[in-house]
Batch of 2 targets.
Target 1
Amino acid sequence: MFNKRKILVFLSVLGPGIITANVDNDAGGIATYSVAGAHFGYSLLWTLIPITVALIVVQEMVARMGVVTGKTLADLIRENFGVKATFFLMLSLLLADMGNTVAEFAGWASAMEIFGVSKYISVPIGAFAVWLLIVKGTYRFVERIFLIACTVFLTYAVSAYLVHPPWGQIMLSTVKPSFDFKPSYLLMLIGVVGTTIAPWMQFYLQSAVVEKNIKVENYNLSRMDVIVGCIMTDVIAFFIIVACAATMFVNGIHITDAKDAAVALAPLAGKHASILFAIGLANASLFAASILPLATAYYVCEGMGWESGVDKNFKTAPQFMWLYTGIIVVGALIILIPNAPLIPIMLISQVVNGVMLPFVLIFMLLLINNKDIMGEFTNSKTFDIIAWATVVIMVVLTLALVVSSFF
Amino acid sequence: MPFFAGEIFVSEVYKKPVLDRTGEEIGKLKDIIVAAGEPFPAITTLVVAAGRETYLFPWDTVNLFNRRVITVNARIDDLRAAPVSSTDILICRDLLDKQIVDINGAKLVRVNDLELGDVKGRLCLVAADIGLRGLMRRLGVEKRGEKFFFLFKYKLPHKLISWHYVQTIEPKVRRLTLTVSGQKVSSMHPADLADIISEVSQKERTVIFGSLDVDTAAEALHELEPRVQVDIIDDMSKERASDILERMPPDEAADVLGDLPEAKAQELINLMEKEEAEDVQELMEHEEDTAGGLMTTEYLAFPPDMTVEEAIKELRLEAPDVETIYYLYIVDHEERLIGVLSLKHLILAMPQTLLSDIMITPAKTLPLDAEQKDVAEFISKYNLLAAPVVDEEMVMRGIVTVDDVLDFLLPTASRKKRRKR
């Protein structure tokens, strides 16, 4: 029997983990999974299980640090690794996230173009909407909106259902690893894994856990939140790959981004599947376009020691609000400039993210194993081996993605 | 006794080589241990790291301690490694980069750097640097940063919070709290108090102001920026606001009221005692940046036929209520200014002398509509502490004291620094 009170407590803890994991399926993530499905069919589905495990391992540590210390990742880095490391980390990540935000607005613009809305209309409206949400919203309200955005991802499940894929074959490919040494396959594999873990996610998750003020007694529920979120994210990724594989791969159609995928779905699987796919993309992009600047504002302010939080306003947390506003405005403006060099901007942000990831993950591992900070909540020996192995693999694959993006 | 020079920032000595008596390098300065003490923690020990070993040097074995060289009275061959005890307070480990919060837990800033200074012959931790300048010093680009900002005609300010206002420290603190509450606040200088008040949130200001007695509040209020003054007055009950305004010198009260919406200002004036209200009302009629707007109506005026002895007696009675006692103004029965006398001349004169015999006449005067710039030049030209303001009939209306025009005379940057701290 479920205990009613327990469920209520769980619902109150729920949020940060699910939201952070879902933003992983942002414009870039959806594009990667679409291309993976369209070009390689079901042969990459098996990677989703190890990806989910890696995501859970990393995110669980961050959530644990947030709950146990009551401090955010940026706080801990500043206090333990000094001002130099913090400053350069923040500066690089600020640049990287600027670029990422541009990519999210680009995704939003392209999704709205499918519905015939010009980017000169969709981008300002989208930017204003996400800005207003944080500036006027309280933490509880904002979190609810974000959780609703998470459920919109289920459109991909419906999309996949509408294309009537061969479920038996799909299930087999999911659990049975296959491998191919073709360079294009390896590149795609690196792409799929490399987009999984980004530096900003760690900062955002821990800040959200801290702002939510989750108590140590409820930590196991917070862990559930992370696990549910990570599984949900990769289930969505699974449906994206399936929808594209069952249609485009079978018919040999090549695509380059998520918008192509949505458009290509229409003749193959019907208008509804295509529209649902586009709605998913629009939602994911705008969702990420709000979270990324938010995460950035959080960690920069925390690193510097300024007041931060969604519940604050321009008077109580001026730097936080202005940073958030600034990143959104600049990100949206870049999209609106005709012939802006979008590809180089996104490339640079991907490179900076990839280069910074090892630092962030290694700082995290050092912090979580510091008894002065974590007390009895440091990693257990077995978990620590898994964590280090995961981090090393993720770092290698992310750096491989950075290198491959130049070719 | 160790020799140290002036003020030193921790970032300037951190990781600097520490030399032994013969000039051989022992290791690098890793941390500094302080003793918890009120109000400034004194340095007790230097922690020096050489490879994996740490050595402790009590402060009395240190010979030289400055940003260029640190030497200790020891021989490198006789050293014995010693670990830091768990109850020690290490300023780099425990204080640097920590969050500073105010009494309500709202985050203000982080400790970017720490300042060490001489307190009664001991080197103590005296202040936390919370500004951009401290941050750049930590990054090793203070000089370059200064030059960079100079391109934009911006002088990088020092932003220091005296350790006075920071809670007593203990090992492994999670964060540092400012102790701007209770007794400490009322013993602070009003200008310092104003600095802190402009840092904290509006809610706290109201709390802090509520805890002050009327006189302290009156002094602190004037030091604040007009915008903050208006906020505070708005939050207070009208009765308390008018009480505080009564205690302020009339010119300062008029300044504050001048920034309030007219209806609110009038309401407060009506609540004030009649005499003060009239003074303030009169001052408010003048343009803010003219002699009339800058002046105060409280000054010492004496008739010409008074003797020096009587004047000194009178002076003792009136002095507590006036801003400046260095000048005595001699006025006739219609309040017209006929001469001026400095306190020095008064005291040096024989007791039975009449004021009219020793006064300087005619006195240098300013018209009511003299502009701020002219007032400042006037005061500076005649080297005055205060200048009398008269109307067309030479009737004395008030005095402008030097501190009323000091802000105007200071270069903009330093004025900003003082206000913003």
Target 2
Amino acid sequence: MGRVPTSNETAGSAIVYAGRFADRVAEAGLPGGYAVLSEWEVLPAKLVADIEGATALVVLDPFSFPFEIMTGEQWGVPLIVVLPAGFDVEFLIAVFGEVVFGRLTLFDRVATADKGTWEVLRRRYGWAGSQRVALESDAPDDAAAEIGALLEAENATPAPLVDGAPRGAGPEKAIHLAEKAVLEPQFADAWGDRADDVAFDVLEVGAGTGRWAASFDLARTRFFGVDIDGNLVAAARANVLGASFERLGPDLILPYQNESFDLVFSVTVMHHHPTPAKKTLLSEMWRVARPGGRLLFLEEFVSGRSEEAVYPMSVNVFVALLLEATNEQVVLEHMESLRYPREDLTRGGVIAVSRLGVPEKW
Amino acid sequence: MSEDDFYTPTDIDMLRMENELLAFEVRFLKTRLGRSGRGLGISTPLSRISYLAEAKGDLVLLLRRLGSSPLGPVFRLSREYRVLENRYLYSPEPQGPPNSPYQISHLQGAERDLVLLLRRLGRPPLNLIFGRRRSFRTLQDRYLSEEDGTSSNEQRNGR
């Protein structure tokens, strides 16, 4: 039987929920000495407190895990869900689709030995290739050992797989969810009331590993992404099916024709660049947006939230730069400030503008 | 130091930037609120516009009914009646959104004309003819019933 950890024990560490398999997992032993919970040891109040302090939550037995106690804070912890073996994929979707699968982000992973089931689910929910933990065995104790070893290896050498954020960096997922909450309504607003059979062309500047592609229905959206980092472009291509990613050259000239996109957006990109580069990017984003199309920026207007090198800009400086770069041919559609989890200052802001003008081609 | 150069903002810098961000958001929200208020014709409630349009519709129907009745030629002997027919039956509808000042002024005029016409028809000897008609009494109830000049229908429409 597994032991019940205290909140202090789980802080900064991963929690393994073994449920009905707790005895087998405890006997097999986990590398790293992670706390293992059984199905009898998940009092909601305590589990919630434990999850909030954890760096990751591994669910070995999703059938008995109380997902209903998870709220916004708990979903901010990276999740690794082990798919139950021997079940039809449609059955898994019926049971876990809305509760779990539809809520997974690029910061979460799905562990399974069944490649066929993985592919079906991946296409259905737009998961990235890097989200799969390919298990050797479906047995819960073996799965626990494999995942434990994986977490240990990642702790030893954090791999920057998600836009520079190391795997298992809990706050990064919480930040992503906060950004998602303000961005997705803007994506929907840019979609507007267009008919389903009218293509929606979207470009993300600074796409990283393509984490925002999952916010679009790629069956109805032509999603393009550019990034100056070739490794991230390669990762995005591997991660996201049905989207196109290109490397952005040092001149920052977007490799697309004028007026090609209905939505052009960037997420925390501008503060990485000095003013001349910002101006070039803004001008280019305006150039490739269609008249009436939307330009969307989620930026940090109160310096950077990390130790990385940044070129801070206030919102007033940014707006002045935007107006200059676009020759004032934009109109403000939306503005919203954003406070990140566990932050004292309100740092982020979403600015949406429409491009004015008459199309070059009718 | 040029703004192109990298530097670590001080606490004061960060507070100033946060203030700018929040002030910008407040300005945007105020602007959006003002714009949406004008778009809805906030100076004239929609319920009032709806009531006025209904009064104008009743006036048009009443004029048509009167004009096509055996007493139509008699009514047309009156200059005021001919003015009403010309204004509401034969003149083009004013253009523009229903909440534009010109449209609202036109509808308010129609309401006044309807009230005056109903009062005229409600006096002897015409009241002996029209007072027996249920539809006429309904119009009187709707537009003349309140002694203080505010009809029950207007009250229902939130005036």
